[in-house]
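Quick one, tokens below:
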């Protein structure tokens, strides 16, 4: 590290320590003027972000790390940038607005530095140092923002899948999953997980999977159904598939898929009748065993 850079780093740290509140307020002002208050943000939150980021930046500069490694190795500064980005992602802010907001701190900081450093070479060195740190912070902010939004999208997609595959308790120890629409790998996994959890929760002995609303059945869909049936059986319950339409039955036969060892019924009503018979037999068997 050069002597000049070390001296400039120390001077920047002093400026942040002495004029931190002023710099933070100026940063908030720049954000409001250029981006406005939107995306669920309020000015008090901007002030909290500004105070935290200015404080963390001052601490990072005082740590003596090389500029190119500060955002990577200084946990305090990195955590503040990541937290700011994630909170704004959840609020619905645009990623470019968030990353540019972090970079706008550069202007607020350099305005204060310019008043403190009269010598041109020191000012240039300070500008370069600040740019390297805050540009890296802006890049981290953008990266974190995108990852945060992707996580939100994945979670929302999962929630939509769960809403589209409800497990219904039809009778004591009898559950049903009415499926509507296409059945892919992700949705099949949600069906299996929700059904197995419901079987355990309700101590169910029969599970009905109704595919009346499933438009087509191919090899993949059939395999998913068979895996679900096997998993249900491993839980100690019987499984009935209902709603197999004539066209789907022909497709299954043409694909050479063997469903001979799986209970199937034409309608949900027929499946429920079968389920009642199965639970009745199980009850009789338990009574006979106790007798």
């Amino acid at each position: 590290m050069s002597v000049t850079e070390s001296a400039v780093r120390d001077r920047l740290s002093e400026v942040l320590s002495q004029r931190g509140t002023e710099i933070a307020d100026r940063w908030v002002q720049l954000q409001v003027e250029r981006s406005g208050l939107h995306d669920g943000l309020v000015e008090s939150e901007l002030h909290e972000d500004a105070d935290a980021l200015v404080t963390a930046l001052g601490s990072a500069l005082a740590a003596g790390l090389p500029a190119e490694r500060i955002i990577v190795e200084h946990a305090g500064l990195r955590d503040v940038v990541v937290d700011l980005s994630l909170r704004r992602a959840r609020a619905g802010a645009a990623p470019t607005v968030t990353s540019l907001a972090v970079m706008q701190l550069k202007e607020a900081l350099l305005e204060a530095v310019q008043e403190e450093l009269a010598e041109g070479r020191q000012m240039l060195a300070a500008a370069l140092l600040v740019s390297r740190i805050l540009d890296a912070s802006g890049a981290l902010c953008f990266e974190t923002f995108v990852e945060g939004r992707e996580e939100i999208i994945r979670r929302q997609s999962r929630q939509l899948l769960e809403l589209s595959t409800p497990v219904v308790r039809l009778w004591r120890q009898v559950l049903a999953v009415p499926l509507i629409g296409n059945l892919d790998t992700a949705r099949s996994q949600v069906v299996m997980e929700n059904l197995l959890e419901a079987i355990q929760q309700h101590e169910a002995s029969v599970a009905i999977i109704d595919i009346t609303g499933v438009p087509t059945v191919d090899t993949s869909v059939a395999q998913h159904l068979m895996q679900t049936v096997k998993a249900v059986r491993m839980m100690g319950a019987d499984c009935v598939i209902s709603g197999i339409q004539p066209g789907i039955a022909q497709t299954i036969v043409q694909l050479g898929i063997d469903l001979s060892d799986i209970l199937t019924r034409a309608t949900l009503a027929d499946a429920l009748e079968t389920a009642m018979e199965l639970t009745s037999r199980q009850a009789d068997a338990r009574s006979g065993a106790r007798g």
